[in-house]
Amino acid sequence: MVEASSDMDSRFREEITETREGETLNYCYQCSTCSGCCPVFRYNSKFNPRRIVENTLLGRRDRLVGSPEIWLCTVCHTCTEKCPQGVKVSEIIIELKNLSTKEGHFPEHLQEEAKALLEFGMVSPATKAILSRREKLGLPVIENAPPEEIRTLTSYTGFDRLVENRKPVEGETQKKEASGE
Hints:
The chain is an all-alpha fold.
């Protein structure tokens, strides 16, 4: 399929290349080393680092921002270590995740973790069983960060509004839609 140049956004490519590690994007010649060494791609062909880099090079913002594929990256940095051109593939994917998040597109499980952080001062609060085991082992008590302080910080940065106004990533249905409300 031939793509029309009107579907490509050079400003998007520039936006990524202007980030801290994004300038390395321009070194990519699409050799596929990143995909060939990627442990995620080995088990899930939906995640293809070479294709993500290609779409970024072509300015295909519509295929990346809000895409569930970028969230499959485990940030193991194997692609970055193996790239013969020194393209910082994993860092570019992090920039794409950051951009998606700023626009409210991030997976639901991350929203739930953020809500737990705001409520409890910790993403995964310790259960009574864990606290009991820690006590028996003579380990120190786990102190949660004061939720009020976390809420103050997240309010100041706008993170709390971002968490509240999350948009589903492509292919994800919101709970309201799923329950028919």
